[in-house]
Amino acid sequence: MQTLNHYLNTQILPRGRDGNHRRRRGGSMPQIFGAATLQPPRASLETKRKTYSMPPEKVEVFNSLESWVSQRVLPLLKPVEHCWQPQKLLPDPSLPWDEFSEQVKELRDRTAELPDEYLVVLVGDMITEDALPTYQSQLNSWDGVRDVTGSSHNPWAVWIRSWTAEENRHGDLLKTYLYLSGRVDMLMIEKTIQYLIGAGMDIQNENNPYLGFVYTSFQERAAFVSHGNTARLAKESGDPVLARICGTIAADEKRHENAYIRIIEKLLEVDPSETMLAIADVMHKKITMPAHLMYDGRDPMLFTHFSMVASKLGVYTANDYSDILEFLVGRWRLEKLEGLKGEGKRAQDFVCGLAPRIRKLQERADERARKMKKQSHGAKFSWIFNKEVAL
Ligand SMILES: [Fe+2]
Ligand SMILES: [Fe+2]
């Protein structure tokens, strides 16, 4: 992936408004796999991040879509009374002690054989979910859709709060399940969550909802893929309840993915050029994972190591990245989008040609990795009491 990042930064640059290849806006992008450092990871300070990049008059586009959001997006939320809650999938503490402790014992028996590397990925996914305050803040930073009062009736704001409320169950459920398993070091996990929420995220959405909704479309699908794979692996490892938990979360992610994809679809209809440029911009910057500033107070490469284990287990890989991109290109029918001119057309060509180019590069990187297999090593994870996991 280092090579992939390097290649994307140096080779596959779309042309800017002047027709020349865009130069990167200084400094290094947050890397999926960054360089070693003795400091906890931080957002780039090398250049001032671009902010408020949406032209002010475009706010009207989002105002004009309010009733459409009510009719076509809000119905993708589930009423609270129809939603699952974590308690439905966890031992019931309201039962008499012996029955409750029997349920906990069964949970511990099921999780006893889960491989360490699987636990690392599940913990990393749970920590990512638990940094939800960061994601709600991110959505509320976007012009034209933010929740201006904290309890606004504007349909965009209703979506942001209700989406957050649905997401909030994901971290709660996974964290309680892992806590009861006794297999993980909760203290180190809790520290990591506190560090991560304190660090935030650096995804360069520029307070711009065009960029933001492209990012969330990609990210929700990535979450769906990732939870779907942890469900499959839980089943293979003999824990059908955990499989159901991960599958239930994946189904939520799928609904959220549909909502964000639908928003971009609508924006492509009402403002194709700006939306196409936004898709190209986000893909040019690359999708940085939401928990990329993860730190546990010990391992400055924690996110890199977690990502490597997730990739090794097949929970989220470079191939998934290309698959998601290809899926979105198809779902938004970007190849068939007509009437784009100049930089809009160049953005379209860039995005539609990107997935095959990334795949080709990945094949070469995989080949090199196979040859260097002898040098592969492991990493110790504080989340599982400093046990080492192969990378
Ligand atoms: Fe989630
Ligand atoms: Fe999600």
Write the layout of secondary structure elements.
Blueprint (H helix, E strand, L loop, with lengths): L1 H9 L48 H6 L1 H7 L24 H15 L4 H15 L1 H8 L15 H27 L4 H14 L9 H28 L3 H31 L1 H14 L16 H12 L4 H14 L10 H30 L6 E4 L5 E4 L1
Helix pairs in contact: 1-14, 5-7, 5-8, 5-9, 5-12, 6-7, 7-10, 9-10, 9-11, 9-13, 10-11, 11-14, 13-14
This protein binds fe (ii) ion (FE2) (2 copies).
The bound ligands are: fe (ii) ion
Low-confidence stretches: 1-37
Strand percentage: under 5%
> What is the N-to-C order of secondary-structure elements (H for helix, E for strand)?
HHHHHHHHHHHHHHEE
Detailed description of the structure:
With 391 residues, this protein is mostly helical. It is 59% helix and 2% strand. The protein has a two-stranded antiparallel sheet. Strand 1 (378-381) and strand 2 (387-390) form a beta hairpin. The longest helix has 31 residues, at 240-270. The chain starts with a helix and ends with a strand. Residues 1-37 have low confidence and may be disordered. The chain binds fe (ii) ion (2 copies). One fe (ii) ion binds at residues 167, 220, 223, 253, 256. One fe (ii) ion (FE2) binds next to helix 7.
